[in-house]
Amino acid sequence: MHRVLFPTVAIVLGALLAPPPLRAQSDDADLGRLMEAARGRQVPTAPAPTDPDLIALTDQLTRIAETQDGDALIALADTEIKLSFGGAYGLAAFREMIAEPWFWPEFETVLAGGGLLVTDWAEGRGAVFPVVFQLWPADLDPFEYYYGFRSGAVLRATPAVDASILWEGIEGRVLARGPYLTRFPGLYEEGWYHVCLAEAGCGFARTDEVRSPLDWRAIFIQSAEGGPWVLKTFIAGD
Question: How many CA atoms lie within 13 A of 216 on its CB side?
Fold first, then answer.
């Protein structure tokens, strides 16, 4: 059955589900610079968590995702949970978001990126999923790069699943964003990104195998060690 969102929530979610925010690239020389800066670069990772509170939170979230228990997730959320940079916030909007068919697969992907404990925030201890968002290298503009996140992801010569492979195994690789909005209009809607590696040139990768570092993330706050975790933010973009 088709769900009808509150108008404000529907507008905001529609914007969030569009392609990640982009900045215009000036020319091929600029693209070449971005490619070279990412040559051989891997996405940042974090060691397996050892903090018992973070481990317990991760286990709890995994169970919630496996059972798609929206009520349990709502119970963790702050009453003013932030869901966008444009006005969507609060539990009613979050409940509407959870009811959308894209939510649980996306939430599982966020969790699969691992959680990072942050101990120097003024609000208390933080837990950030996925770790890539918190650890993204400062010298790589997150608007200009994607990264391969799914096992078996490859770079193809054309946007087709049977196209020749330019580079095997882009999982974990930093990928320069190609100028697909101008050169390949409609590419994202067809399920592809135009991305580039210094070692292989530009090609195409599936949108379900590549993510932006500014993609969806979940941020929890724990006011004191041993206390409850509160989901403060579930958001994409910048």
Answer: 21
In degrees and rounded to multiples of 5, residue 179 shows phi and psi of: -80, 60
Quick check: is 238 in a domain?
A: yes
Nearest Cα residue to 176 out of 18, 36, 45: 36
Question: What residues make up the domain containing 59?
Answer: 47-130+216-238
Task: Give per-residue pLDDT as tens, 10-19.
Answer: 444 444 444 4
Do 75 and 106 lie in one domain? The reply is: yes
37-89: per-residue pLDDT in tens?
A: 999 999 999 889 999 999 999 999 999 999 999 999 999 999 999 999 987 88
DSSP code string of 35-55 = HHHTTT-B----PPP--HHHH
- Specify if 168 maps to a domain: yes
Q: How many residues in total does the chain contain?
A: 238
Q: How many CA atoms lie within 13 A of 128 on its CB side?
A: 18
Residue 96 CA to residue 150 CA, distance in Å, equals: 28
Is 9 a residue whose pLDDT tops 70?
Answer: no
Q: Dihedral angle at the C-alpha atoms of 61, 66, 67, 69, nearest 10 degrees?
A: 30
The pair of three-digit structure tokens given for residue 141, joined into one six-digit string: 């503009």
Q: Are residues 119 and 224 in the same domain?
A: yes
Residues 126 and 221 in one domain: yes
H-type alpha helices, 69-187: 70-76, 91-98, 103-112, 131-135, 180-183
Residue 207 within a domain:
yes
The answer to whether residue 74 is domain-embedded is yes
Q: For the chain, how many structural domains are there in total?
A: 2
